[in-house]
């Protein structure tokens, strides 16, 4: 119970109520002590006035008057004269004198605490004003034991009363907290556990209904989280289905491409100059397609195989990419150009880098073509001491804001109609396999620029 939220509220409430009662107890005890002493002074004054009225009393009556007043002796100051009115033997010397005429609250509190925590029997002198202006002052001596006993009885009553109040207040708060806070929290926990059993089921997403602002915000945040998770799980399921479909399609496509490769091999022996010039490019393209389908079938997952690193001429690879892309350009006013350092060789997987550059150039060409305006695409290659840098820049319409937000997310970054949004995702995965990075280099009005960084050493590039 005490480990629960409501149980701890119960303990804290009792503690705070008891603390408040202690803060009330101290001045109330001081007030009770003052009233006790003033009552003794008033009784002593009444006894003194009875003596003054009769003129003389015998010894037994004087003892009875002092006993009823609860004092040892009484001194009155009247008409500038100080007179011992009633007296009896004092068992011990006076140890303390208390003047109630101008006592401050702090002084009364201090004297009350001293009286409460001093168990020794002693004689006290108390000075105060007589009631009804029956003199200038009255002074009495009295034992300390009755005062301390009365303070102890009063304190015990206050203690039990405080304990009862704290228990009642804590019980009320306990049930209030359970109803207002604990029960709604348990409902949220139940909804979380229920959702965890079947997160794909959108019907189990929590519906915010609490009227408390903080709990309502927690429910809304949980709803948003569950909604996003359900969507992600559905997307994961679609990706798994797509992976299975790709494997089946790759199997059939491999057979088709193998047949096409056989026919393309025969074209290389043609006497037609155009066919002889285009046949090697066709053979290389079909070979890449066959290699891609075979690697997809062999790997069996949505993960690319590790790159096979070799050294090759970047200029030759770039020209091959641009030549392949020029075949897709019909009447569009689109120009393709290469700006690669002479003799620049890179260490990478040529097939994977070809796919990356082809994806970037194809995206740029399709963006320029869809805009209805001409443009230019340029591949620039350079190197420094740490890495090779390849820039793919175009003068097209640029990326829309929505595409920039989900640039490298699958099924999200495509800005063209009918696109899958997988090109940049696959390209980034391939470059990461090299320990490099693919990033949006610059976004400026009228164009887009991507940068590929390939490390020269074994360490990954961290920007």
UniProtKB/TrEMBL annotation:
Name of a matching Pfam family: HATPase_c
Keyword terms: Coiled coil, Kinase, Membrane, Phosphoprotein, Transferase, Transmembrane, Transmembrane helix, Two-component regulatory system
EC number(s) given by UniProt: 2.7.13.3
InterPro entries: HATPase_C_sf (IPR036890), HATPase_dom (IPR003594), His_kinase_dom (IPR005467), HisK_dim/P_dom (IPR003661), HisK_dim/P_sf (IPR036097), Sensor_HK_Regulatory (IPR050736), Sig_transdc_His_kin-like_C (IPR004358)
Record field: catalytic activity: ATP + protein L-histidine = ADP + protein N-phospho-L-histidine
Histidine kinase domain: residues covered: 248-458
GO molecular function, one term: phosphorelay sensor kinase activity
Protein's UniProt keywords contain Nucleotide-binding: no
CDD domains: HATPase, HisKA
EC class name: transferase
Membrane-spanning segments: 9-30, 151-177
SMART domains attached to this UniProt entry: HATPase_c (SM00387), HisKA (SM00388)
Residue ranges the record marks as coiled coil: 215-242
Chloroplast as UniProt keyword: no
Domain of life: Bacteria
Protein name: histidine kinase
Source organism (scientific name): Donghicola mangrovi
Top-level taxonomy: Bacteria, Pseudomonadati, Pseudomonadota, Alphaproteobacteria, Rhodobacterales
């Amino acid at each position: 119970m005490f480990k629960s939220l409501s149980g701890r509220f119960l303990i804290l409430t009792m503690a705070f109520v008891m603390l408040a009662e202690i803060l009330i107890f101290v001045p109330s005890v001081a007030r009770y002590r003052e009233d006790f002493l003033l009552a003794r002074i008033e009784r002593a004054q009444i006894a003194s006035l009875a003596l003054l009225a009769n003129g003389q009393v015998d010894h037994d009556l004087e003892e009875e008057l002092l006993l009823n007043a609860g004092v040892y002796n009484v001194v009155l100051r009247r008409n500038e004269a100080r007179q011992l009115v009633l007296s009896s033997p004092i068992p011990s010397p006076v140890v303390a004198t208390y003047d109630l005429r101008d006592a401050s609250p702090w002084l009364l509190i201090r004297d009350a605490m001293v009286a409460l925590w001093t168990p020794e029997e002693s004689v006290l002198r108390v000075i105060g004003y007589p009631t009804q202006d029956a003199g200038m002052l009255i002074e009495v001596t009295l034992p300390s034991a009755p005062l301390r006993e009365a303070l102890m009885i009063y304190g015990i009553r206050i203690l039990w009363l405080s304990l009862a109040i704290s228990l009642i207040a804590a019980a009320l708060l306990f049930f209030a907290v359970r109803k207002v806070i604990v029960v709604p929290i348990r409902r949220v926990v139940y909804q979380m556990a229920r959702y965890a059993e079947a997160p794909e089921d959108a019907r189990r997403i929590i519906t915010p209904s609490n009227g408390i602002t903080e709990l309502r915000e927690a429910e809304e945040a949980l709803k948003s989280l569950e909604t996003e998770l359900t969507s992600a799980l559905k997307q994961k399921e679609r990706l798994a289905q797509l992976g299975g479909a790709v494997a089946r399609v790759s199997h059939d496509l491999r057979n088709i491409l193998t047949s096409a490769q056989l026919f393309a091999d025969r074209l290389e022996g043609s006497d037609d100059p155009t066919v002889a010039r285009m046949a090697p490019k066709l053979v290389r393209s079909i070979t890449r397609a066959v290699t891609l389908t075979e690697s997809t079938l062999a790997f069996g997952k949505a993960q690319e195989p590790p790159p096979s690193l070799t050294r090759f001429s970047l200029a030759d690879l770039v020209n091959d990419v641009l030549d392949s892309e020029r075949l897709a350009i019909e009447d569009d006013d689109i120009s393709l150009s290469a700006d690669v350092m002479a003799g620049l060789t890179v260490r990478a997987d040529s097939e994977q880098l070809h796919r990356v550059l082809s994806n970037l150039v194809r995206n740029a060409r399709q963006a320029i073509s869809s805009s209805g305006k001409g443009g230019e695409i340029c591949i620039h290659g350079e190197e420094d001491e740490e890495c090779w840098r390849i820039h793919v820049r175009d003068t097209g319409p640029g990326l829309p804001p929505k595409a920039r937000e989900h640039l490298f997310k699958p099924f999200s970054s495509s800005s063209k109609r009918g696109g899958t949004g997988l090109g940049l995702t696959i390209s980034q995965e391939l470059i990461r396999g090299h320990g490099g990075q693919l990033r949006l280099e610059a976004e400026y009005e009228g164009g887009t620029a991507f940068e590929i960084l390939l490390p020269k050493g074994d360490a990954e590039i961290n920007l």
